[in-house]
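Worked problem 6 (solution included).
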Amino acid sequence: MPGAGSSPLSPVERGGPSPADAAARSVAGGPVAEQRAPGVLGAGSSPLSPAERGGPNPADAAAPSVAGAPAAERRERVPTEPAPLPPALPRHGVGAEAALEELSRLLAAGSADPADPSCAAHLHCPPLAVAVAADVVASALNPSMDSWDQAPVASELEREFTTGIARLCYPTAGTPDAVVTTGGTESNLLGLLLARETGVLQSVCGANAHHSVARAAWLLGLPAPIVVPCEGDRMLPAALAEVAGPGTVVVATAGTTNTGTLDPLPEIAEICRRQNARLHVDAAYGGTALCSDVLKHKLAGLELADSVALDLHKFGWQPVAAGLFAAREAGDLAALTVRAEYLNADDDTEAGLPDLLGRSIRTSRRPDAFRMAVTLRALGTDGLGALVERCCATAAEVAERVEQHPGLRLWGRPELSTVVLRPVAADETGDDELVARVRRALLEAGTAVIGRAALPTGPAGENQLWLKLTLLHPHTTAEDYRPLLDRIVATASAELVAARESPVAS
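Solution. The predicted structure is:
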């Protein structure tokens, strides 16, 4: 029945005098946080910021609001040899307190810390403390979002939240709607699925598109996407116009994985309208820039898409998973309708019980919308937009430092928060493998986790390997990344020396 009571652990689960206190300490900065190895591996504690507490300045949701200690408190190097793991399925348990403390210590000490400036490889955010706390609440109550009787209030909160997201993407549409997904990959799958249900049999995407677009086509039994060439990691509208038409769904990207670049959405939308093609926009990275009055112009044309993928475990600072899928016409989502007598019987829905099974391609699913709703309630769209602005502003400043650094070359000015760079030594030697070795050396030393991207910047347009910094910590500054830039250059020099001295190289 709705409403949860207390649930003390059994003696078998306890294994100690106060398991509830131990769990709270392990999660909120007790034994685990006290013994962690600070740095790129190992995360710290995370009290709420003034903005999350309802304070006056959402842009000043300072470092403590993000899971992980401030950068100044971290050491640069960390142990890279993990501790031996205990048996996963022991015959006899050790008790709740011992198990939670033991495995939490291992996890904290051996995890990449997304709050550390040197952890900048992927669209892997440091989650906001308020989102983590909300996730604990949702996990404790454990509503399952496949039928209303399992999640009466959770379903209402989800409906209210997704309605707001749909209106954010489609402010003037008559009947937009949105559903919760696991992330951009599932949202892109839905985009192609709903297109297929309208008779579309061919997808079209840029060479810059996320790999999930091709995977979705494969899963749905559709032909491989037609790939449109790009320039500057943006789809070329003229090339798109040659292949888009009736029976096609164009997948545009608002924030590419490699560079954070946005496709020219207004031009693409006009081509789709003129040539009667469907349009899906993968805005998993850049979509929440809609919350910023400063940045939302970058997403002009998004409202013309038939569907949109968003992902709040990127620019949204949510624990995974936090995907969303918005449709301009709510009727399109009817394609997800399925009947199961035990979950959404006809007489129940006719009597007014909401049908949750048709809100996802999954059956059992977590109440992920709850922590997203709590976060937006805490920060407001203005507060969330301010955090996006901070990341983008910091990326612009870091790009300037790359341009000024004699040992680095900048690929281009960032549109969002991705900075793409390359050691000058790799250009001087013509050694693309040097770039790969630099990334691996930093990773193996435990000093930095940075990304890589293959981009067509070679003399004849061939791919070259670049390094990538994806900046998703809204409370760092460009100065926090200076040591990382210097370390990249120093590592490149050391790798060159090692290569010259290696017997294999000679």
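Discussion: The CA atoms of residues 35 and 105 lie 8 Å apart.
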